[in-house]
Amino acid sequence: MEKQHDNPFQFTKTVILLPLFFVLTLWLVFWYEMQFQDNLSHFGIYPREVYGLKGILFSPFLHGDIEHLANNSFALLVLLPILRYFYKEQSFVVLFLGILFSGLGTWLLGRPSYHIGASGLIYALVSFIFFKGIFTKYYRLVALSFTIVILYGGSVWYMFPSVKEGISWEGHLAGFLVGLALALVLKTPQFSKPIFYEWEKPDFNPELDPFMKNFDEKGNFNPLPKPEEVIKEYFSSSMKVVYEFLGGKK
């Protein structure tokens, strides 16, 4: 039977269901706004105002137009399955903390305006997947990190001001930093190399093991007597040697 350490990647239905459910929620909220002409932007993040704190949880589900929603939906449909498949044990923690702290970072850094959209979460996912793969040094995850660079390497420019009007570069920057922090803090023991002791190896022979020789046939600990130390003479001579101390006299 294959050990978990040998195959840490297990495909489950949640690899598909998690991103579908999350993205479907975004579209349902957008449909509600269009259908009932109810703009929910006031549920977004408004920096450094107490009433703007509610947007930390609600802003990822709000989008200004169909293009904004479509771009974020496509990114989430790519990144969330990757997160759930490769980092199953950490996926929900990364998702929750990515939303929470990227939103909090936007609230602290952002300009005085409503910030909406899932971009902060997306940058947190990109950052986490990239850096965690590098930190683990697991060959498949390192390859995944380079894939992330190919797919989203150009998005790094949108973390700086004045690159494009109408985007929350503060949210992007906050998400990127949160993803890096999570990659540093969260442990991934499923990728650590398993430790095999000598007695676990298939070719282990207890009769040849130095420690096992200390037990008798009944299993009692009976260490072998230590061999007597033999002092070897490394220098011999037939000449008489006289030593004289030539210390100074007072």
Automatic annotation (TrEMBL):
Keywords: Hydrolase, Membrane, Protease, Transmembrane, Transmembrane helix. Its main location: membrane. GO terms for molecular function: peptidase activity. GO terms for biological process: proteolysis. The chain crosses the membrane at residues 12-32, 92-110, 116-134, 141-160, 166-186. It is a multi-pass membrane protein. Residues 56-186 form the Peptidase S54 rhomboid domain. Signal peptide: none annotated. It is found in: Membrane. This is Rhomboid family intramembrane serine protease.
